[in-house]
């Protein structure tokens, strides 16, 4: 039987190991993808060493969203061809009840159905090949990777992996129906998903007020995206130490324009038993009447300004990941040049490539190089 290299975790929270295991085979509704590159989220180390206590079954092959080429197709595939360049989406949903959701090789989700599903689909993309349900495979135009002299966009594989990062906040922005011309608060805007949220909201035609504690990253966002979008479309506001001064700072940044929406993508550390970061209440208090909030952060418990939410008719929606339609729409935005990547108008920094054998260094780098662009990924197959 043909074998492949795969980065596996044999026991929960124990170090990963590079193993030789059989190449998976196709099945009805399941294709096999040859992995070219796989993304690493900033807190991957905390997932696999057990710090985040994400529940998932072991043994498994670790992984995240990835880019690959179709290696083998099942007989019931109707749209894909062998060799196609594809994105692999980590958001796996039950076929007979899509409300059961888990993230491939990351977390088993929160229902009995999602837990059961992950027991079956437990192997992720940190391997040379991966078995993937057809509905988690999105073909992508080759012209994105083609050189400029061949009429292509000349993107690097790391630029394309950034699209996976963008899928997440795009899910929340779509869910609260952000429209061109609207103004949105994004906080914190300095992390991996937060900075991507700023980039997409701008690309969708919105005006963005981006909040963060790290002034250097806010400045980097402003300088990277400032030249791509008209002046005034992106304003940055430092996170202050109390809600009142934060509201004043937001007001000053917004000028006379009402603020329509707020996307929160805070990490759990912004909401501890000692209290919550003041930006959360301040952003909600700054919304216009009938404003919308998308809660995408990882916090467990929050305190809400209930009276304001009620009297101002605010809508608050939680969103985990994104819908298939969102992924397709965002890919179209990238293919059509509505959202530019890399040097063309995206992050100035590119993620750093690592081999699977360098997983420890890769996870450390992803954790240290947080912000707009940057981070780390595994280069696995030849492009
Ligand atoms: N809903 C979903 O589908 C979904 C999907 C993926 C992730 N998430 C959640 O989103 C969170 C953010 O992800 P990420 O990749 O952007 O994380 P990240 O790259 O680690 O960034 C975290 C951001 O939070 C800021 N921050 C940290 N502590 C803070 C505090 N006490 N007050 C205010 N800001 C603070 C950091 O800025 P500093 O430079 O100031 O530290 C940084 O900008 C994750 O922790 C995860 O739980 C949700």
TrEMBL record:
Stretches assigned to the Alcohol dehydrogenase-like N-terminal domain: 29-141
Family annotation (Gene3D superfamilies): Medium-chain alcohol dehydrogenases, catalytic domain, NAD(P)-binding Rossmann-like Domain
Pfam families per UniProt: ADH_N, ADH_zinc_N
InterPro entries the UniProt entry points to: ADH-like_C, ADH-like_N, GroES-like_sf, NAD(P)-bd_dom_sf, Zn-ADH-like_protein
Residues annotated as domain Alcohol dehydrogenase-like C-terminal: 193-334
Protein name: Alcohol dehydrogenase
